[in-house]
Automatic annotation (TrEMBL):
Pfam families: Cupin_3. It comes from the Bacteria. This is Cupin domain-containing protein. InterPro entries: RmlC-like_jellyroll, RmlC_Cupin_sf, UGlyAH_Cupin_dom. It comes from Acinetobacter chinensis.
Length: 123
């Protein structure tokens, strides 16, 4: 039988990292991003992510996807393939699918729960 765990109770260090979008992907601003990992597994990472207003291009690997739930703020995710976008605000959730290419835009400073899953490549 597997053990159950309560997030934040010894699963990871819960240390917060700070980063900024890569200069070659930057579209608007230079937003500071804070990531607090609450649970890590070889194929999954869960935590809280915060970001200032700005925009940058994103490219997800074929085997990577993200589920997120906005706690505060508003984001707009633009799909490069068909020029569409979705807007996700506090209380709403979204999914960024595998192989997604587009622009991640923070319209109001955002805080979100995230779950990133990577499926190992088939051998």
């Amino acid at each position: 039988m597997s053990d159950l765990w309560l997030a934040g109770q010894g699963l990871t260090s819960s240390e917060t990292t700070v980063d900024y979008p890569r200069p070659d992907r930057l579209v608007k601003g230079n937003p500071k991003r804070l990531t607090t990992s609450l649970y890590e597994h070889p194929n999954m990472n869960c935590g809280i992510w915060q970001c200032e207003v700005g925009a940058w291009n994103i490219v997800f690997a074929d085997n990577k996807q993200e589920f997120f739930n906005i706690i505060e703020g508003i984001v707009r995710i633009h799909n490069a393939e068909n020029d569409s976008f979705i807007e996700v605000k506090a209380g709403e959730a979204g999914i960024i699918p595998p192989a997604f290419k587009g622009t991640f835009e923070v319209l109001e400073a955002v805080k979100k729960y995230f779950v990133v899953v990577e499926v190992p490549a088939a051998e």
